Amino acid sequence: MSTPLERYQKLGLTDSLPRIYQYPFVCKELSFILRGAYNKLPKNLQSLVFQDALAVFRLLPQMQTQSAVSAANLLLQSAEAVLPKQKRTQAVTEFKHAKVACKRRSKARQEEEGLAHLPQDVLVHIFSFLDMQSLLSVGLVCWSWNSAASDNCLWQLQYAICFGNSEDISKMKERRDGELVEDKEETNLKEDIATRTSIDWRDAFKRKYIGKRAKRFTSNRGYCGVCHTIVWLNNMKCPKRHPGVKSENQQIKPVSPQQIVEYILGDSLSMTSSSDSDSDSEGGLLSKLWTYPRYTGID
Amino acid sequence: MAFTKKVTLKSSDGELFIIDRAVALQSRTIQYVLEDTNPVDAIIPVPAVDARTLSKVLEYCKKHLIDLNTDFEDYSKWDKDFVDAEVWMLYDLIMAADYLHIPPLIDLICDKIASMFKGQTPDKIREIFNIDNDFSKEEEEDFKKKSGWAFK
Question: What was the ipTM of the complex prediction?
Answer without folding.
Answer: 0.86
